[in-house]
Amino acid sequence: QVQLVESGGGLVQAGGSLRLSCAASGRTFSSYAMGWFRQAPGKEREFVTAISSRGLSTTYADSVKGRFTISRDNAKNTVYLQMNSLKPEDTAVYYCAADGSDIGALRLGPDYWGQGTQVTVSS
Fold first, then answer.
1. Mean per-residue pLDDT, 73-78
2. What share of the chain is helix, strand, coil (3-state, %, to 5)?
3. Fewer CB in 10 Å around end: N or C, the chain?
4. 42: which residues sit within 8 A by CB, 6+ positions away?
5. Cα(45)–Cα(73) distance, rounded to whole angstroms?
């Protein structure tokens, strides 16, 4: 069982930056692929980015490529999402996710979800 707790959301102006953190419980964090999804009001949840268990591989949705960066610190059981050049369309609840398999499996349906953190970008 893995528990995920996100933090770092908030209100920011367009063009600004935020860094989200996701702290995971358990001693097997380093064996999980980790990722972020988001859900805007009235829309389906969508994949944002993911990182492999050892941090050697990452993947991004086209909409955030070049602006967002995912990273992880396995010693701290934490994954991060650095969001730069934020746009109003990035406004959403951001969810941390974990999968015991790989990035591909995570994109299709993670094993675990966090409770979400709100990110609001004003124009």
1. 96
2. 10, 50, 40
3. N
4. none
5. 26
